Amino acid sequence: MNDFKEIEPGGRPFVRAYLEFMLWFVGRAIQAASKVDDSVRREFAELPEGFTFALTAAPAGPSMVVGKDNAGKVKYLGRSIEGRNLNVKMTLKSMEGLFQLFTFRESTPIANARDRLFVEGNIPEACAAVRILDIVQVYLLPKPVAKLAIKRYPIWDLKRHSWNRAMVNLRAVIGF
Amino acid sequence: MQLPDHFEFMCPVKTGSGSQALSHLPSDLAALDARKPLILTEKKNSEKGLVKHLVQAFKTWNITLGVYDGIDDGTNLETVKELYNLYLDRGFDSLIVLGNGNVMNTAKILNIAVSGKPEDLKRVKEGGTITEPLKPMVYIPVISGTGTETSGDACLDGLCVSSTFLMPDIVTIDPKVLLDEDPEKVVNTGLAALTYGVEAYMADDANPVTLTYAQLAVDFVVNNLEVLVRESLVARGKVKAAIREFQAKKERTALVNAACMAGYVYASTGRGLASSLGAHVADASGFPKGIAMGLLLPYAMDVSARIKGRDLSSLMRPMAGIEMFCCTPEAQRFDYAVNRVRLLQNELFSLTGGRVPRTLEDMRITRKTLAGIAEKTSQENGACDSALCLTILEHAYDGKPVVS
Amino acid sequence: MLLPSYYEYCCRVKTVAGHEVLERIPELLSSMHAGKPMIITDKGVVAAGLMDIVTGALADKLVIGSIEDDVPPDSDLRVVNELARKYKAKGCDSIIAVGGGSVLDTAKGVNIIVSENADDLMKFTGAGALKRKLKPLVAVPTTAGTGSEVTLVAVIADHEKNRKMLFTSYFLLPDVAVIDSRMTMTLPDFLTAMTAMDALTHAVEAYTCLSKNPVSDACALEAITLISRNVLNVVKNPTDKDGRLALATAATLAGMAFSNSMVAMVHTIGHSVGAVCHVPHGTCMSILLPYGLEYNMHKNGEYTAELLYAVAGEKVFASTPKEQRAAKTVEYIRGMNQALHDATGGRHARCLREIMGRDGKPMVPAGTLETIARVALGDGSIFYNPEDLDFDDMMMVLTAAWEGVKLDQNMIKKG
Q: C165 pairs with which residues across the strands?
């Protein structure tokens, strides 16, 4: 059996580092948007106390967890899903899938339509989480890129487009 | 379409096709509870870097892959025995087949042995059937193939078995591993797929369920094969070649989809007139089977429609598209379909400088061997009486359509 | 046929269809090493005399382990547990499910318990929870609509804890779907119409929405063609054996299409009308289908246009200018609803306000539309819709569907 060998495929440290960063930023942006944007605030208000939502990739992340504490405050809860009781968990079937998503080569609805992700947990809450993600993407991305990421680019007033956008980005960077 | 009084169809395969398809494999295998796959392939595929793409897809998964790339035309039951020991000793639990024809045959036979007892092979050789599902098997096609890789047929070293349990669990078509290949091999794949697809329309129990896959096989071959061969023969500079490669990947993906679907259809409908005769013509002429089958296909279509009275007009739809199909009067649709196949062959003949034959005469078969082939075929396949077989062969010899 | 940049398709179910194919069941079971099935069905199936046909066909060719005919329309965990207990007590080795969606969901639940020797079904919810083949399961559909004989999901309610458990796995797929024309022969006209339009909706949404793929597309086209050519005829001539087989086959094909390509806003809103007002699923589908196509037309009009060939035939397709085909497809579907309305003496409703309950009162009062729209925002099928829908969009669609008027294309937000 000269033609046989065993291979350890290894990891993808650079891709992982990039995704860790992106997820960290989006997580903090969700926290920021919950304070700045009325629609996001309303969506979170409808969700139960202690609600947690995670975006992750199989088999072992990277991940992002966002939740609502008992006082109703929305918080970025870090990059580990270990030991958490999640209400909604959105898992890309591979790190490559998450990478495509965060390099804007494929939008979430298209990744979903192409069987690249699955959602576990309470479905109405998952729908709310997706709506929140959509709004946050509009805040974070320039219009041409955001148009690739969501189905319908919203019509917002000037304040939401400029002031709110600046606040969400600023708060995400400094983290409050 | 009038439905037959009784029809059956099954395709137990999950197909995934397109960009990043390989990245779905680890989670698909996990869903089948497989954690240690053995990859089987040929030397040339590892040399071309195809195995690397596959390994890349398993990064971050913490899975050890076994790779055996020693399969070639000389692979026999001895090799299977060695692979059997390897599979068990190293604790593999599934097979990933990267390649075509013989690689797949080896994997199927090996899977019988590793799923039960090695004596199962002997039992199957003596006519026993496979009665239980086998271990998980994934098929990753390359551009060329026989069109039966995804079916339940396996033939290695004189041992031929057929069972739906031999069909792969997962077929993963990834454009990354679909590289340019010798046009003749590409044509062979395409014409085999086209033949199995069209034969599903000619089968006695032709039905809308089987025809879902069959129409796609026909569509993807007719609309991709010619352009793929033509463009692969054009010399280009680096930039233009890279641009062309982008489009070619799509056409190859479509063609390989056709080949896989043809295998699913073939597993349910079996051989028709053209493929039964084609197998013997291939033996007699030394040409590949797919090319021989494809050559006979239009004559078998003639016989089916014009002598047996089958309505094959709906075959035009996957070939020409909905628009053209609807605008063509019903009475002309069969003519369109059969002529489209003839046109394709003449084009391929011209493009390859005669390497793809149009007639049996092009194949340099002598006319007097035809009766023998017809006789042999009709003994094997009850649906084809020897006079009908001979009609097909004689017309195919001269390239003359069969008229009622 | 369009080849998307990536697609997946899987339907592992063996389809066995025809006029007398129930007789194949013993042989099929024996090839899976089974010979003592539990038959799971409901009282409606028994009352229609279908169980006699099934048992007659199986006759002395196998031992029927047990016949359980009390699956309620809203089956739940208690029923599943009870049936699983009986399955084990009577030493059955396989399951034959005869009926519609509820019967099949129940059978799938029973199958998980008896195959995995489980006491808590909850452990098997979620992706990837099932890892191996379950006991042989044969599905015999009796409605020609739901397509659940080829779907990989099961929903089982737990009424005690007031929750719904969702199971998704390729291992939940039945091994065989036996489509026998005798099973739908006695379906009353309005149910025939309703279930056929349910199947049509599956196929149309699969073909026009985000997860479309060539195999589903081919299934959908065949299904739509079979339904549009046969439904009116079968409603008028209920004993048309070939027409019945065509509709039943179409429902299975539509099931293959939508279980891979999924469904979208017609189901998003339709599920919610069903949940809030308890309207039968098929009725919601037939009413809402034209609106789903109209709403998405600026995104997927080219696919809707292609369907004209399947709904109206080749001549109509060829003689309609390209840019008018999508609208014509919608017009034809509305026309089918109208024709079925006439043929069933008005029992096939054309708009939401026309739906009447057994007591003769309207089932969808105008006041419920807002609640419906809110519930719809939480339905997962919305992910597969080409265009986004917010609360106002839902209300616009619901209001038009309630009145029975066309959607105003100028009112649709196009981003």
A: C156
